[in-house]
Amino acid sequence: MQEKRPVLFSGIQPSGNLNIGNYIGAIRNWNKLQFDYDCLFSLVDLHTITVRQDPEELRKRCYDFLSLYIACGIDPKNNILFVQSHVPQHAELAWILNCYTYMGELSRMTQFKDKSQKAGKNINVGLFDYPVLMAADILLYDTKVVPVGADQKQHIELARDVALRFNKNYGDVFTIPEPFIPKAKEGARIMGLQEPEQKMSKSDPNASNVIALLDDPKVLTKKIKRAVTDSGGEVCLADDKPGISNLLTIFSAVTDTSIEQLEADYRDVGYGKFKGDLAEAVVAFLEPIQQKFHAFRDDTTELDKILRHGAERARERADKMLRKVRDVVGFIKG
Ligand code: AQP
Hints:
The chain is an alpha/beta fold. The protein contains 13 helices and 5 strands. Strand 4, helix 8 (153-170) and strand 5 (178-180) form a beta-alpha-beta unit. It starts with 6 loop residues before the first strand and ends in a 5-residue tail after the last helix. Adenosine-5'-tetraphosphate binds next to helix 1.
């Protein structure tokens, strides 16, 4: 009999423009791990509406992101690809877990602090509750491993704490998940091109900060050539060189070359040549992804089929877990 593979869950919000940070921090590891794990990859659209979205744009973006997942190498035949809102159990489990999560815990989440600052005066409750929904996403499927960028580490720690608390009350209901995060120099946190102290983000209103996976090669080249660098002129990884360190990390990821090798190749050639070569490498890396994206994106009938099939399989599993949860907390069978 074939041994059961451990479960992997990961999701990305269909907000803004999928970028090289999302790829290096998360999707690259999805790619590597998809053969050894039983994987569910989600478009977490319930999370996306914590920030106001244009409904038509959101719908379109779900298809864009799904096509990009596939273009980046995620095989829809061997993995479950689905939209979070197609599986209502996520929201139900989130409600139940809300009753096992403390306000203090959520108040400490750095993403909430950052995003609520941007939200101004009227901060919606969804933004505060986001990590509980994320815990539900993970815990619904007996997930063992969650590949994410470093920014999501705190949320996974919360999911673990809530699961342990719940299990302490009711027995071993949830599997305790582990984060799977790249090492710092492998791109756990890719920074903005213009603001290397800030994480590169899908929803950054300043497009010059972001290498979007679908950026036109000419635009990309310009952005990379204009990226902020540091004083000194030497190409090396260093804490006091956030700009050049970030570019080296991107270069290393898209060419599969070690940072040490790149430092040796570029140490004394100057930033101009380094950035020119990096731009070429990024364009070459993204070209096949963009070509595949266009091939998949036009076939919405096929994309709908993938999502329908994914949702059916995800619902079946989620339903099993929710029956267990409803039972242990004391709800009578419906
Ligand atoms: N800059 C980054 N470097 C490395 N990994 C990153 N991730 C995000 N930014 C970087 C990882 O990509 C996945 C995105 O998941 P998400 O959309 O649920 O979360 P997010 O962290 O809120 O992403 P963004 O890009 O910052 O989106 P917006 O701007 O829309 O809020 C996660 O695995 C994340 O760690």
